[in-house]
Structures are given as structure tokens and as C-alpha cells.
Amino acid sequence: MVYRDMKTLSNPRFYSALAAVCLAAGCATKKPTPKNYLMFPTPPDEPRIQYLMSYGSESDLGGPSKLDAFLVGERQITRPIWKPYGLTIKKGKVYVCDTQAANVSIADLSSRKLRYLKPEGLAAMKVRINIAVDDDGNCFVTDTGRNQVLIYDKSGNLVEAVGKRDEFKPCGVAVAGDKFYVTDLKTPSVRVYNKMTRQLLLTFPPNTGSTNDPARLFQPTNLAVDQQGRVYVSDSGGFVTKIFDSEGKLVRSVGELGVTPGQFSLPKGIGVDHEGRFYVVDAAAPVVQLFDAEGRLLMFFGQPGTSGEAGLYLPAGLTVDYENVGLFQKYVAPGYKLEYLILLTNQIGTHKVSVFGFIKKY
Predict the structure, then answer these.
(1) SS3 of residue 309 by DSSP
(2) pTM as predicted
(3) Is 25 in a helix, a strand, or coil?
(4) Which of 80, 173, 218, 317 has its CA 20 to 30 A from that of 236?
(5) CA 166, 249, 220, 118: dihedral to nearest 10 degrees?
(6) pLDDT at 21
């Protein structure tokens, strides 16, 4: 046999392509494996939430395989997430604050690659907790080690550090319109800033000094903002979720200390959809509870032991997202449409980031 194109045969990518063809040919005769979709609530109730996928490192995103890496001579790197807390998703990228690894992991769902935001020097993070990203790609990171909100541009350069020495202890953060919102564990309160000027616009609720004040916050951790400008706050120390209007006036309190549905033992991550339904992570339960706009419990999901891969283990952060639905529709059970995403972090176990979807029948 005469090989006419030795250059092609010497190219390792040729063998990668050849292997892919062989694998595809071998799989063509196999029958598709039926898939068991994990949905909540369980039958006979109509499902509204579906577990879609999870990942704990770059290798879980479905990037290049070990065979591909071997054939093309590239070193395979598995970038892990160790102990995540807050997260958000923007333009096909999932941003996760890793409290143990001193970085923010950024998973690009299109390229299936994961990289780290880990600036050094004056821009370095100490204990990053929560993150929000605006439309321009600017990252707002709360750091309880520096006691500042660190703002980085889309290239990872530090733009500004908000907060003077001992001024406050930021935890939760959200960006909405021309403002960004921060929970302060020191005061405790919610602080509202102008996004462009970083000027403090509003602080609420006012500290009356009364433990009986219904608006009082004890340990505000996470927060979310809805389309009407209402602010939803997980008060971990008060065992409730409190909802304030755009001017900082209390609308309602939801929940109380307890372990039954509708109660909280350690509320943390929180998110709200376009209909005013809101999700609250109970890290100690551990489950996610879903409430309607009036604060009535609709359902809960994610309890370990009965949820398979969808089980939550020391969950922390949560975010609701409509923008990136198209990237996850392929995971949805036949006959259902994905309306929006619910992303969560697990601080222990292999599924560091779990993605659920709010679904509806066609």
C-alpha cells in the first residue's frame, strides 16, 4: 500500500477524527437508552420543576475527552470547584464564588471550558461570597475578608472597591437596572448604590433598636430583586424571608423557625421569577421551597435521599435566569417546554452546581 499524503497521516488531528468516526459507527447500531427524568413534584401531581444537569469541574461540562486529548497531544486539565457559595449566569457563562479556592470560576457553556477569575495584588479577593454580573460583563463580588464589594470589568481588572475600612460587612449582592444592592451583616441592613457612581442611595430598614420591629433584619445573607423593584431578603438569623418595596418599606415576612414546609432553619440563597414566585434555599433542611407572590408555599424539592442526582447537599446560593434557557432545552423531557432556569450551589458532594428548570407542558 502506498501512502500518498504522509503529512495528513502524521497529523494527530487525523487520528482524532478517525476515532470519532469509528466511535460513531460503533454506536449507530445501539438502541437509545431510555432516560429517567427527575421531576418535582412526583406523580400523580403535575411536574413543575425538572432537574437538568450538574457539574463540579471542567470535565463534567462535556468538553474534550481523554481520547481527544491523547490523540492531539494536549494535556487534559480538570479545573475543580471546591466550596461554592454564590452564583449567577450571564450570556452563557456561569459565575461561581469558590470560598475555599479564593477565586471565581467561570464556566463557558458554549465552549464547555472553565476558567478562574483570580486577580492578584491590590485586586486580590480574600473571602468571596456572592456575585452579580451586569449586561456589560462587570462582576460585582462581595468579599467578607476585605469587607468590600469588588467590581471587576469583563477582562478581570479591578475597577473599584466599594467600602471603607470597618464600614460594613457585605454578603448578598444583586444588580438591577442602574442600581446594585448589597446585604450588610454588620448593621444589619440592605444598602442600595448607584451602579455608575457607586454613591449610596438608600439603606433599609431603619434601625429602631426594637426587637419587635417587624421590618428588622437580624442576619441578612442573600437577596434578589424582582421586575417591580421589590427586594427579597433571606434573613438567616431571623429564620424568615422579608420582602421590601422599592423604597425599602416592608411588604411582608414569610416563614418562621422550624423544619416543616413553610418554615426555615437556615434560609440562604433566594431568587424570584417574573410572576413574583420566589425560591428560598434552606441550607439546613436541605431543600428549596417555592412560594407564590403572596408568600404561600407551593412546593419544595431537592431533599437528599429521595431525589437521586437532584439531591442537595449543604446548598447555599441560588439564582433564577430566563436569558440562557436555550442552552438547556435539550435536557428537558419530551412534551415539556423550559420557561426558566434555577441554578444552585452545593458546598459538599460532587455536584457543586445543580441546574433545575421550571417547566410547562406544550
Answers:
(1) helix
(2) 0.88
(3) helix
(4) 80
(5) -70
(6) 44
